[in-house]
Amino acid sequence: MSSKDSHLSDQELLLAADGELPPAQAGQAASHLAECWTCRVRKGEIEEAIRDFVHAYRGSLDPLLPSPAGPRALLKARLAENASVSNGSRRKWFQFPGLRYAGAIVLGAVLALLIHFRPAFQSRQALHIVPVSFPEPSLTPGAILAVNRDQICVAKRPKNRIVPASLQRQVFEEYGIPGAEPRAYEVDYLITPALGGAEDIRNLWPQSYSSAVWNARVKDALEDRLHDLVCDGELDLSTAQQDISADWIAAYKKYFHTDKPLEP
Amino acid sequence: MFKDRTLPDLVTSAEAAVVSSEPTALEAEVVALFDQLQDRLLRYLLSTGMTAPDGEEIVQEVFLALFRHLQLGRSRRNLRAWVFQVAHNLAIKHSIAKRRDRQNLVDSDAGPSEEEFVDRAPNPEDQLTRNQRQLHLQRILKALPEQDQRCLSLRAEGLTYREIAGILDMSLGAVAISLGRSVARFVRAEER
């Protein structure tokens, strides 16, 4: 905060008006404003500018807003549909007595098989490997940092930072595989940091090495290729980011001119 | 059979049948949040340059995602900020896809898109009724860097600096600086 004799800066006046100053500073600002007409006038000017901006902002956008009834009804319909699909698939099984008996018989048979092949079952469960080749858009929409080409091209093919274990666990949980075997996956950046991707859960997903064709090693090759193209000035950064985040397999095919991964 | 007369035409009969069933507490909660936030969310999306139909679709997607989020028992902490964050991320993906579509059109030499044929200038009647000052301020807003525009729009929608920082993946200080810079421009415009 400015000294007692000087005035509050515009930044401080704005923070005070927005209630964003820490309590101690807010108290000082309030005392200063109580005694300083100059700062009070300036605060009034700032608030007037904000008021005019809000009028202009809303004046240009409010006429475009639809009546709320239609979107609301549509959302209710979609929610009900969603709920009925998930409830329906859960209920159907138990609605028919015949199926209940058949289910019991199948369950018994499965248990018998599991007891018989217990060692094999245990090892597979311990590994808990679910092949994942594609990020789930609702969980991993991608997130980028505000960086430019010069900043990302400082190093040639930089290695991705290892994602902290706690963040990796969060990613596995988000993807419904909390007991996943970490060595079987690369918790990978959808948009690699080498292309400006952020270390953020919205930009991370568990890509399995075990996927037969489109696995983590193939994506690593694509990341290197895009980084090279961007830094050689053959591709702009935003195109590289959008291509790899929209569909990395399509991007691989596009930039390697092939329909299947090349031999390492 | 019961028919909900408040349903608009855009809801299909199959959807109407589903609507008539009793909503769960979770559905009711999501709809209540939708009532509270839909205008603010859509206004924010429109401020990013999105068209109204695209914005409406994204708002729907956001609340369906919220429903799934709550259904899975995930965090309920600050759902308002969560909703804006998901909308913001979907808006980025949407704009990336749009840019790619436009690029493909240019690549295939298909000529300008339908969007480019739209005359965005207001008609003379509208022009007369529009407030010149508002137009001037809108021009200032459009001239701001994209990130400053986003900060300002989110603040205008009532989000706190901390929430804006989370949504736009910026530091708290950067949000304060961005808002200060933008407001200073508006103050200067007032002084002229």
Summarize the structure.
The complex is a heterodimer of chains A (264) and B (192). Chain A is mostly helical.
Describe the structure.
The complex is a heterodimer of chains A (264) and B (192). Chain A is mainly α. Chain A has three domains: 10-63, no CATH class; 93-127; 149-256, no CATH class. Chain A contains eleven helices and two strands; from the N terminus they run ααααααααββααα. Chain A has helices spanning 10-17, 23-35, 37-61, 69-95, 97-116, 118-127, 149-152, 165-174, 216-231, 237-246, 248-256, and strands spanning 185-189, 204-208. The longest helix of chain A has 27 residues, at 69-95. Residues 89-97 and 117-129 of chain A have low confidence and may be disordered. Chain B is mostly helical and 192 residues long. Chain B folds into two domains: 23-118, Rna Polymerase Sigma Factor, Chain: A, CATH 1.10.1740.10; 121-192, Arc Repressor Mutant, subunit A, CATH 1.10.10. Chain B has helices spanning 13-19, 25-47, 52-71, 79-107, 114-117, 124-129, 132-143, 146-156, 161-168, 172-191. In chain B, helix 9 packs across helix 10. The longest helix of chain B is centred in the middle third of the chain and has 29 residues, at 79-107. The radius of gyration of chain B is 20 Å and the shape is globular. The model of chain B is unreliable at 1-21 and 110-122 (pLDDT under 50). Classes of the chains: A mainly alpha (264), B mainly alpha (192). At the A-B interface, helix 1, helix 3, helix 4 and helix 10 of A face helix 1, helix 2, helix 3, helix 4 and helix 7 of B.
